[in-house]
Amino acid sequence: MNSKKNILITGASGMLGRAISSALENLGYTVFKLKRNVSEGPFYYLENTGHIFLDPSISLHAVINLAGKNISEKRWSTKTKKLLVDSRVQTTLLICRALAKLPMPPKILLSASAIGYYGTNEEKIFDESSCAGQDFLSILAQSWESATMPAQEAGIRTTFLRFGLVLSPTGGVLKNLILPFRAATVGVIGSGEQTMSWISLNDAVQIMLALLTENGVSGPINLVSGHIVTNREFAHCLKKSINRLKLPRIPSAIVRLMFGEMADAALLTSSSVTSLKIKKLGIELQHPKLQNCLSDILKN
After folding, report:
1. Record's SUPFAM superfamilies (predicted)?
2. Which pTM value belongs to this model?
3. Domain extents for the chain?
4. How far apart are CA 273 and CA 113, in angstroms?
């Protein structure tokens, strides 16, 4: 079996995992998915015991690690925060240790991270050279990336996919917003002046495909469009795309009451991020501007 055509994906059932799996298969790759049961395939992870089996007889060109619990699914209790950490850091560490032990490790590891790495700032614009922040999401992203060290030490070219807000009607934040926006129960959050850094799902997939080539880059890459918008602008663009005339503003106090710690970490503060490495790869984004992006992906 040609190793250049074999890709292993973790977190393959999520929005990103489904999209990149489909794109790879359309390009002729053989996609293997890390399963949860021994009987389901040659690559599996038994979460209860922490055992990962990677079939050494199947040579892999690359691994795309997208494993991790949904950040915004629940309020951040102590238990939930531990699940968020373990599902990312511990899973990534176990996978990378297993990859390092293979007789022929893959050449490439694309491992998910997030622009939360940089923390929040009302004035600064971050790029891949910027320092890490100090809040929960920043520390989580730092630990997540550090967990790839066994793979790096084994000589695997490792890239950290620092995702911005990935936009698609098939999943993630946008899917959860469409119905409330159509019902006019959600609109501008807080002051509306906090900034957001986003990318379309199609562009995120395009970048990941480029990173699987010999010309790919190592280290961090920010998966963002570079078109930084305020929450108010985002709400206006979404409103226009779904033909709503007016939307309510949700006061900061209500947002904090609803979401707790998550409100100030991810909803009410600014995250202005651009990417130097996307330009280095020479990629022309399909959706560089928010209004065109939303109008395109929501047209059906």
Report:
1. NAD(P)-binding Rossmann-fold domains (SSF51735)
2. 0.94
3. 3-297
4. 14
